[in-house]
TrEMBL record:
Keywords: Disulfide bond, Electron transport, Metal-binding, Redox-active center, Transport. It comes from Oleispira antarctica RB-8. InterPro entries: Thio2_N, Thioredoxin, Thioredoxin-like_sf, Thioredoxin_CS, Thioredoxin_domain. Belongs to the thioredoxin family. This is Thioredoxin. CDD domains: TRX_family.
Length: 144
């Protein structure tokens, strides 16, 4: 299984059956995935969403957005709870305007689930932790 390190963004091979949260990066020697959302730049987004064999949940947000800030703790909580089911990332749309336009992000916060570089599901608006986890589990169940 291929997993992109949440620290240095190097691609690592993890043996089947082993959890990404247990793997150590061959490049930076840190734990590959710690269950905390990773801040992605525009240039890191494509690699992170297409080179991971695990699904990637992305929160598109902005610093001026009140609902984005209100949902951030719930998003971090769900990332920790689901750390062996999906990877979690955040993209600041103020810094990644071209990406936001390319992906047709019209309102924030917008959450999207990616698998092998393709968007699987999307929802707009802030959600409490329990609804967020339920939506992610539903999106993951749609995947082959």
């Amino acid at each position: 299984m291929l997993i992109v390190c949440s620290h240095c963004h190097a691609t690592n091979r993890i043996p089947e059956g082993r959890k990404a949260s247990e793997g150590q990066c061959g490049k930076c020697k840190q734990t590959i995935w710690q269950g905390k959302p990773v801040d992605l730049s525009e240039s890191q987004f494509a690699k992170y969403t297409s080179k991971n064999d695990m699904p990637v949940v992305v929160d598109f947000w902005a610093s001026w957005c009140g609902p984005c800030k209100a949902m951030a703790p719930a998003y971090a909580q769900v990332a920790e709870q689901m750390k062996d089911q999906a990877l979690f990332a955040k993209v600041n749309t103020e810094n990644a305007q071209q990406l936001g336009s390319q992906l047709n992000i019209r309102s924030i916060p917008t959450l999207a689930v990616f698998r092998n570089g393709k968007e699987v599901d999307r929802i707009a608006g802030a959600l409490p932790a329990n609804q967020l986890q339920q939506w992610i589990q539903q999106a993951l169940s749609k995947m082959p």
